[in-house]
From TrEMBL:
Origin superkingdom: Bacteria
Organism, as annotated: Candidatus Zambryskibacteria bacterium RIFCSPHIGHO2_01_FULL_49_18
Entry-linked Gene3D superfamilies: Protein of unknown function (DUF541), domain 1, Protein of unknown function (DUF541), domain 2
Keywords: Membrane, Transmembrane, Transmembrane helix
Record keyword Iron-sulfur present: no
Keyword Thylakoid: no
Transmembrane segments annotated in the record for this chain: 28-46
Name recorded for this polypeptide: SIMPL domain-containing protein
Pfam family of the protein (one): SIMPL
Gene Ontology BP term (one): DNA damage response
Amino acid sequence: MGFLSCFELWICYNAGMETKNLQDIYKWAWIVLIILAVFLGVRTLASLKDLQNTSPSYNTITVTGEGEVNALPDLATFSFTVSADANSVSTAQEEVTKKMDAVLLAVKSLGVEEKDIKTTDYSVYPRYSYTQMPCTQFSCPPGRQNLEGYTASHNVTVKVRKTDDAGKILAAAGEKGVTNLSGISFTIDDPEKLRSEARALAIKNAREKAGVLTNDLGVRLVRVVSYSDSFDGGVIPYYREALGMGGDSAVMPAKAPTLPTGENKVKVVVNVTYEIR
């Protein structure tokens, strides 16, 4: 091989090496560019998200409005208990069922519907007596517990939708021998309707206050920025004291009691923030 041939081979080898080096440089350059593009894309998305979460800057005023609605109760609720004592569980249950059937028949005859009568408790438990054993000179033996029988108890809650009839229904239940009549309450059957009315009045009150304030400040309302409301106490039931406790017909007199229903109140407070210009 001559001198020129060797020289030509050397040139070709160097040219091949330079081409390979350029390809490697291009490859790494592309990798760096891709990584840089991904990094910049992530940073851009994060910046856009922060920008979205940033609250816009504008002038606002916040006013409070109150609305109050009064209404006569349209629902009376009371509870009663029927109980019976017997020597066996089955007999006690039979007796309490007879008594309860008589009470429910009287209540339903005065217009109370089946859907407004609900059992809230039913139980049967043993009754014991305690005998103290005589003491000796040295000690007192423990007393003795004696099984006397069983007591069955059935508790029911009743809704009366004609509040004027509540007294008559209580009297009818008492005449049938209920063991206990708990306190009666007078409420609103649909309190959400009253809340809606009170809320509308509260919003109107807030808008009127905002109008006065903007006139004093020489600005105008643009839009509502935020709103919240709360109920001050809600519907407050009117309670009567416990109507009686005892047994048989001694619980209540035959004459229907007079039950003033009072008045229920719903109050709503709203907070409204307006943008102003």
